[in-house]
């Protein structure tokens, strides 16, 4: 089975930023930031397996991660070197930004209203 993993230079920066704008995906990127591969099933962020899979797919298709399949397990890693080369400082800025408290409104939706 082959997964769609675009060349990062072919991914619009808006797609990269949109992938990083979700709290769960940002948690995944922060967990991957120290390096190495992690089994996809090892991420526990209070979401269902299907939701976790969706978030991992969005990150992969936005060029942020690479996925390797070994048997029935998928391993994911951050494409840190490529991201730093194409978007210098982006990941550092995102990873060092303070996490937003659970349940707080996003800047785009004052008071949590949509």
Automatic annotation (TrEMBL):
PROSITE patterns: HTH_ARSR_2. InterPro entries: ArsR-like_HTH, HTH_ArsR_DNA-bd_dom, HTH_MetalResp_TranReg, WH-like_DNA-bd_sf, WH_DNA-bd_sf. Keywords: DNA-binding, Transcription, Transcription regulation. It comes from the Bacteria. Residues 5-98 form the HTH arsR-type domain. NCBIfam families: HTH_metalloreg (NF033788). This is Transcriptional regulator. It comes from Micromonospora chalcea.
